[in-house]
Fold this protein.
Amino acid sequence: MNHTEDNWLYEISPKRKLIDLNFKEIWRYRDLLVLFVKRDITTVYKQTILGPLWFFIQPLFTSVIYTLVFNNIANIPTGEVPSFLFNLTGITAWNYFNECFSSTSNTFNQNAALFGKVYFPRVIMPMSKVIAGLVKFGIQLLILIIFYAYFLWQGFSISPNMNILLFPVYVLLMALMGLGFGMIISAMTTKYRDLTVLIGFATSLLVYVSAVPYPVSQVEEKMPKLAWLVKMNPLTQIIEGFRYMILDEGVFTSLGLLYTIAVSVFIFILGLLIFNKTEKNFIDTV
C-alpha cells in the first residue's frame, strides 16, 4: 500500500447494500481464500489416530448401518439397485450438503478474535469451508465409483442416464443450500447460543425427512398423506435427483428441479443478506 494519504491502492468502505457479494474484492483476497482452504483440509483430522481414513470410514459405516436397518430389517426395497450402493449414493450427496452447512454455521463464533483484529471480506471464511468440502466430497465420490464398478462386475444392471449432465448443477445446489443455511445459523448463533446445540439435533433428524435412507416411492406407497411433506423438502429433490442420474433409479421431474433451484438461490440470497447485516455489529454481541 502506498503510504501517501492521497494515493491508496485499496479503500475499505462500509457496505451500503444488504445483498453485497463483491467478486472483485474476493478475487483480490484470493491468496487468503486459498490459505483458509488449505488450513481447513489439513487440520480437520489433525491429531486424530486414523487421520484421513475418516474420509472413507464415515460413509462406508453409515451405508452398512442403513443397509442393515432399513433394507434388511425394515425390508425397504431399492429396486434393481443393490441396497448398499443405493445408500452410499445418497450418503455421498448428503455428506457434502451437511459439510457445507455444519462447517459454516459457526463462522462468527469461531472466528470472532480474528474478525476483530484484521479486515478481509468475511464471506471468504464460509466460502473456504464450502471449497474445502469439495475435496472430501471428491474422495467419497471416488469410493462410490469403486463400489459402482464392483457391483457392475458382479453383474448388476445399473447405469447412469442422461441426467448425469446435471451433475455440476446438483453439486452447486448442495453448496448453495448448505452455505445459505450455514450463514443464517452463523448469524443467529451470535445472539442465540442454544442454536449450536439444536444444529446437531436438527441435522440428525433432517437426514430422515430428506429421503437419504429410503426411496421417495416408498413414502408415496406407505404414507401417501405425508408424502407431500417429504417431497416439498428441497433436499429430498437433490438426494433423489442425485441418485436418479447415477443409478437410473428413483423419481425425477423437471418441475422438482426448477423448484429446488429456486429454493436454493433464495436460501443463499437470504443467508448472504443476514450474514452481511450481522457482520457490521456482531463483534459487540459475541
